[in-house]
Write a structure and sequence with these properties.
The protein is mainly alpha-helical. It contains 18 helices and three strands. A three-stranded mixed sheet has the order 1-2-3.
């Protein structure tokens, strides 16, 4: 760690260990502020969002004044996200998946239809404000559902087609979406719960007969070796999943998210272990590790965001992303909540939908976690939303997005198979 002068600006260069320490400190500050400022608790604003935003505005102030800058070596963020999704997979027993099957499929289809509407919104606005199609699509499902990864991938493709600022526009749209996702998800869930006087139904057979029985903690205290085995399985599943995702990417000639491979590897390991008892699975330990990984991931992601990247949101692009946020807020509150049954689980799932339909699946989880901490656990939402947001929605979102590109972007067929 040290100061250097880069382009006339005093820049603090921070190595990976200190970057992680920054994230931890900001996370703790976020929890402290959330406990002190009751409106943050009231509106279910997640702690990593509070701390991350605080630092994001500090670095923004340094940027606009030209007085200082911070350059992070951020090597842990992707690993933490990978670890988090692995723990999600380890929590998914087939017995639970079968119980939530119909709700999972219904939620998946809803999210798929929403992704189509998002692209349609982008194209309609592009015609009204005379915005070129690539920029409209980059401000739609690509960035809202695909996040920064998809925005940079498709942005690079559009840049090769002659739209030079496409990567900048995609990154700016994804940044706007991520910020919006973690700001509106908690309040939407809270409003639905408060207005409809909803509470978690712990007498539901889904909760009692399945969740508690299948994930019940052993009465015997886990030994040191048990803990090592549980942690080792997480790491091994991450490694196997990463390799599998790489192989699948080559097979389908398209990026296949590493965390999806890790999550489904973990699902297989969990269910094989239930049958053959290779080791003593400790759900509470794995769940706790997952929560830590999620909070650290989001703290790192937000504190390293550059608000000045939003300068790419000009004119028609800004209109598109604002309409996307308004659309998701309204459809979650007025439509999806009712389609999902108008109960407590539906309200929590709507807070998650705001997360992964505007930002990323970790945003959905942290939104739902904030709501759960205040009002009570929705196990159904915590099982269904990660699976749909992390992978299943891509089955609909990716092909239809490619169809939109081939239909509205001249010459796209040469670059997109």
């Amino acid at each position: 760690m040290g100061f250097e002068t880069i382009d006339g600006v005093s820049t603090l260069k921070v190595d990976s260990t200190v970057t992680l320490a920054f994230a931890v400190i900001l996370l703790l500050i976020g929890y402290a502020l959330k406990n002190k400022l009751k409106f943050l608790e009231k509106y279910c604003i997640p702690a990593p969002v509070v701390g991350g935003f605080l630092f994001m505005f500090i670095t923004w102030a340094g940027h606009i004044t030209g007085s200082f800058a911070v350059e992070f070596e951020n090597i842990f963020q992707d690993t933490f996200m990978l670890a988090f999704f692995t723990t999600v997979g380890l929590g998914a027993s087939f017995a639970l998946l079968k119980k939530g099957g119909k709700a999972l499929i219904f939620y998946w289809l809803i999210c798929g239809v929403i992704s189509i509407i998002q692209n349609t919104i982008g194209m309609i606005i592009s015609k009204v404000v005379d915005l070129e199609a690539p920029y409209a699509l980059l401000s739609s499902a690509i960035s809202m559902i695909g996040g920064h990864g998809a925005a940079l991938s498709y942005g690079g493709t559009f840049a090769r087609m002659g739209y030079e600022t496409a990567p900048l526009v995609g990154a700016a749209a994804a940044t706007f979406g991520l910020i919006s996702a973690v700001l509106i998800g908690g309040p939407v869930g809270r409003k639905l719960i408060e207005k409809n006087h909803l509470t978690p139904d712990e007498s539901d057979e889904y909760f009692v007969d399945n969740i508690e029985d299948i994930n019940a903690a052993s009465k015997e205290k886990s030994t040191e070796l048990d803990i090592i085995k549980n942690v080792s399985v997480i790491i091994i599943a991450m490694a196997i999943g990463s390799v599998l995702s790489g192989l699948i990417s080559k097979l389908i000639n398209m990026d296949f998210p590493t965390y999806v491979g890790a999550m489904f590897t973990a699902v297989i390991i969990r269910n094989l272990n239930e049958k053959f008892k290779f080791y003593k699975f400790d759900f509470s330990l794995v769940d706790g590790i997952g929560n830590v990984m999620l909070n650290l991931y989001l703290s790192l992601a937000l504190m390293t965001l550059k608000l000045w990247d939003l300068s790419g949101l000009l004119g028609g692009v800004l209109i598109v992303v604002i309409v996307q946020v308004v659309f998701i807020s309204l459809i979650a509150y007025f439509v999806v909540f009712r389609l999902l049954g108008s109960d407590y689980d539906a309200a929590v799932m709507c807070s998650g939908l705001c997360g992964h339909c505007l930002g990323a699946t970790p945003s959905a989880i942290v939104n739902m976690t904030a709501v759960n901490e205040k009002y009570g656990m929705s196990r159904k939402a915590m099982m269904i939303v990660p699976i749909v947001g992390a992978f299943l929605v891509d089955i609909i979102y990716q092909p239809q997005t490619i169809m939109f590109i081939k239909t509205f972007v001249a010459g796209a067929s040469k670059y997109i198979q």
